[in-house]
Model the fold of this input.
Amino acid sequence: MLTAIDRAAAARGLTIGQRLADARALIPGLRTEAAAPMADADALERLADWCHRYTPGVAVDDRGDHRENGTAGLMLDITGCAHLFGGEAALIEDLLARLSRFQVTAYAAAADTPGAACAWARFGEGPILEPGQSRAKLAALPIESIRLERELTVQLRRLGLRQVGDLFNLPRAPVTARFGAAVLRRLDQIFGRADEPISPRRPVPLWQERLTFPDGIGRREDIDLATRKLLEDLCPKLEKAGRGVRILTLDCYRLDGVVQTITIGTGKPVCAVAHLMRLFDENLGAIAPGFGIEVMILSATATDPLVLYQDGLMAARAEHDLSDVIDRLKTRLGPKRVRRLMPRESYCPERAVVVAPALKTPGAAPWLRGKLRPVQLLSPPEPLEIHQPADEDGVPRGFRWRRSDYRVLCAEGPERIEPEWWRGEATQGARDYFWVQDSTGRRFWIYQTRDTQRGWYLHGLFA
Amino acid sequence: MPRLTMAGDGIRTKHEQLSLGFCRMTAKETAKNFAEIRRRFQQAPLRAGGCASLGIPAIDQTLPWHGLPRGCLHEIDGAANEAAAMGFVVWLAALFCERGGWALWCRGERRREAVGQPYGPALAHFGLDTERVVFVTTETAKDLLWAMEEGLRARRFAVVIGEGVSPDLIQTRRLQLAAETGGATALMLLPSQASGAQPRISAAMTRWSVHACAADSSLRHRWQVQLERCRGGAHGLWQVEWNDEALRLDLSSPLADGLLAAAE
Done:
């Protein structure tokens, strides 16, 4: 079965949905390719990415029968964008010219409503449906143009309703009773009587700047300069609105239609050009300009209210100062690799330390004082092999750890640490911790479990 | 007085020009000048940000700067006992971080399995404000050195600790330059090397090695600290122990027990 045909085939009388054998009989030398719906969808997504160069509101229009009969398309909300390209006609001309450069055959139309644009692009003539002309011009289009399920279209045709205009004068109630609400809803959407929102593929950012280059740019210095220019445009606007960047996305549109995206994140709301530029600096090298970049768009995809620090508050300022270097480390190494340690009030050695995000404000809990604790803590504790009998205090005279034998010269202890039963850890059992030292001066923190196993473990190493 | 001749003058190193310049001087003047130049070389890092006194007069006086200079790279060899060396590094970091400075601690990712994690309460015990330490774990040695340089140049950290890599000459030179630029101090905790490895060459200002010494059961941390290498200064060997009451490091008194004699 044919799922898609090109212009030449349509001119020779082939239709979508025709059986392949019939088509071959009509045109003996017909060239066909196996259908690849997934690849088609991917290609459409890539094209949609590219279309973001015109407007942030881009939606893939493959609802209903468009998917099955190969007429899926893209819906661009160009409200308030057309003037950037010299008007609607110029925008469409530019779009089609660029698409034909990518070997994409496309039809485009601009109209008052999404439904009207959709119908006019597929069945109308000329790129633009002028405002107010929809009713007159669309009346002559075939009934297929109003985006109905195929069975419904077939039913309507059987009843002699071949054109959109045939529906205009029918009484509404019987039509709904006979065909369901879909027919009139589609019709209302086309003429703007019912709402049809375009749901954009990406959230439309409130803060966006764009730069267009008549000739593609490719040198790293130029890309740096353009990024700085975009930041210099964006940051004052953000600052005026009292917002700071949390996530910033830079889209680079290449001449060959590939879109490359860089995303950076910050630990605190920022609107300083130098700070953000340094974060981009790490990643701009990853952009492969190919034949050149024609459009760069910088969007602040997430912003937070900007917190201004008073100069006198030393502590707050010091942390604010750190945020730029921490952002830089995070951008290259990943956010989970930059951390700080915070104390927690617990006698359980593992729980006494919390690993916190690097820019978190510390709580009021103090560090544990007065108890001897190892400088290196093994997590989890490692089991020891005991090969020598214990002395009178119950401490082994020697043990084996990581394939080495250690002879215990002296020991201190025990320090009993009970499990935190209120957290439901009673099953773990208490531990008796000992400080032991071997003949070479290495000092270990070992413990024996108080349960039936009576196992020995190494939990840390003292300095 | 001999005339200074610059025959075949091409590109000369600074050293050559200096030695030519000295031809005109008498032996006494030369000696005086050498002393002056030596003093200037030794004090070069001091201009970057002074030095931190270790609080132990014997060690301070051995160091040509009467303390450990800031804005430099110092190496601590942890081959003998990594835990002891880490304790020493933490103590040094605490000295450099006085008055609320921040520290950046860069570790290789595999260190966690190998030697465990630095434990907060113990770091606080050695005087380091643990909440003002930013820990960074990196996958590769390259990333670790990058993070260190970034931290050193940022002018935000008083001290940057690197752990788990042994940088080569060029990398130490880069670290030293970054430390001079940013005025921060770099402390490099070197891992144990494979046996038969080449002796290390480095641009570090000092290199220390720390051994744990058997202490009597007073629960004190006792180390034998060796100054292996010191630019423009002498070597040294001391035995120090942690004073739990005063929270500082003291020379252990050799008369208290026979341990020093045994160590020597």
